[in-house]
Write a structure and sequence with these properties.
By secondary structure, the protein is mostly beta strands. The chain is built from two helices and six strands. Helices cover 11% and strands 35% of the residues. Strands 2-3-4-6-5 form a five-stranded mixed beta barrel. A hairpin with a 6-residue loop joins strand 5 and strand 6. It is elongated. It starts with 22 loop residues before the first strand and ends with a helix.
Length: 129
């Protein structure tokens, strides 16, 4: 696995900053190396605000308020969910409940890919700009 400087517009999920419980999207660079493109944090639901925001606690960031992604289903306080930062429209997003098999997680992979593609960020991420 290769570490690389992350796209400057986003928080930096460098390989050394990925912790147990984080869910990551990995991309393959043109040279065949794999690297982290995006990460989702394992957060705990604290409750729901009157305006619909979901209050979460994440160990590295403390308490945050997240907007719901389309697939999010209401979770009870104390439930673990995947949260992400950096997608357009909110500082934090809550995606889905944490699952034992990461391949079955309902997270916004399509939105991440579209963000990179629509904004021509792949070359920057691969250091080819």
């Amino acid at each position: 696995m290769t570490s690389f400087p992350f796209v400057p517009q986003f928080p930096s999920p460098r390989v050394e900053r990925v912790s147990p419980g984080h869910l990551v999207a990995v991309a393959t660079a043109p040279d065949g190396s794999d690297f982290v493109v995006w990460r989702w944090f394992d957060a705990v639901v604290l409750g729901e605000d009157e305006d619909g925001g979901i209050r979460l606690w994440e160990p590295g960031h403390g308490e945050v308020v997240a907007e719901r992604r389309d697939g999010y289903q209401r979770q009870r306080p104390g439930s673990r969910v995947y949260a992400s930062a950096g997608l357009p429209g909110a500082d934090w997003w809550v995606a889905s409940s944490v699952v034992p098999d990461p391949d079955r997680a309902d997270v916004e992979l399509g939105a991440v890919e579209a963000l990179y593609t629509d904004n021509n960020l792949w070359a920057v991420a691969f250091g080819q700009d």
